[in-house]
């Protein structure tokens, strides 16, 4: 069944994987943007989550809103609140929110903001679905790339990740968008739990960047929470694309060396 789907954060990493999949499924897709853009396969709708400007028009006639946009913490709660108000005024479409595994137990400000957004969604009065995912493969690549000018790549010691491919999260969102609101659905994680330093070594080897990797013991509660594995979901390892599969693909090799 074709639906009108509004996507926030449609130009981000997950959004770029999600939007084509929604179109391929036959949905009428609108992507929220703060400025006018060149025509695309989907429709652009202008609105600003920070101020609420234009959101009422963007949400009008939407059957489903998939909320991916984030400011990495600052402003997420206010933006989500603005979107909810616009959705309620538009008649109450199904709101799908993407969150992160373990945000209840890891002492990061960004995670606290995501948890606050979840609470807003849950109490919005709208039909809602929340999907929590583990970190994307791209996060490991980014952690390495931001250190490309250093003589050594540093990673937190005794910390493991369960990275998942962004396309598999997008596939799950397409499924959820086609269904009725399900509230909190099972978490989704990557197929493997591996140590951060090992992932970094594999990434650097794959892109041909010769650099030692040093596992550094870092202080702080957030790191202790990571070491405890609160951000992992080994029992929900639904992903099939491993980090090595990701490295074998074009996305990793397309990065600067």
Automatic annotation (TrEMBL):
Q: Which residues form the NAD(P)-binding domain?
A: 9-139
Q: What GO annotations for molecular function exist for this entry?
A: protein-containing complex binding
List the residue ranges forming a coiled coil, or say none. Answer: none
InterPro entries recorded: ComplexI_NDUFA9_subunit, NAD(P)-bd_dom, NAD(P)-bd_dom_sf
Q: Which PANTHER family match?
A: NADH DEHYDROGENASE [UBIQUINONE] 1 ALPHA SUBCOMPLEX SUBUNIT 9, MITOCHONDRIAL, NADH-UBIQUINONE OXIDOREDUCTASE 39 KDA SUBUNIT-RELATED
Under which name does UniProt file this protein? Nucleoside-diphosphate-sugar epimerase
* Organism listed in the record: Amycolatopsis cihanbeyliensis
């Amino acid at each position: 069944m074709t639906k009108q789907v509004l996507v926030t954060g449609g130009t981000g990493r997950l959004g770029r994987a999600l939007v084509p999949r929604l179109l391929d499924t036959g949905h009428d897709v609108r992507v929220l943007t703060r400025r006018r853009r060149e025509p695309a396969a989907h429709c652009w709708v202008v609105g600003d989550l920070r101020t609420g400007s234009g959101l009422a028009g963007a949400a009008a006639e939407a059957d489903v809103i998939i909320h991916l946009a984030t400011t990495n913490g600052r402003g997420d709660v206010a933006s989500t609140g603005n979107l909810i108000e616009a959705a309620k005024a538009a008649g109450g479409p199904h709101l799908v929110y993407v969150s992160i595994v373990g945000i209840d137990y890891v002492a990061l400000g960004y995670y606290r903001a995501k948890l606050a957004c979840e609470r807003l969604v849950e109490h919005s009065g709208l039909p809602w679905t929340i999907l929590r995912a583990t970190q994307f493969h791209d996060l490991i690549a980014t952690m390495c790339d931001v250190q490309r000018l250093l003589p050594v790549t540093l990673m937190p010691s005794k910390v493991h990740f369960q990275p998942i491919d962004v396309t598999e999260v997008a596939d799950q969102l397409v499924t959820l968008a086609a269904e009725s609101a399900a509230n909190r659905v099972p978490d989704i994680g990557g197929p493997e739990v591996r140590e951060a330093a090992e992932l970094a070594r594999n990434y650097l080897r794959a892109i041909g960047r010769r650099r030692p990797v040093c596992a550094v013991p870092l202080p702080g509660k957030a790191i202790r929470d990571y070491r405890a594995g609160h951000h992992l979901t080994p029992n929900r390892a639904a992903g099939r694309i491993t980090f090595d599969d990701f490295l074998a693909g074009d996305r990793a090799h397309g990065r600067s060396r």
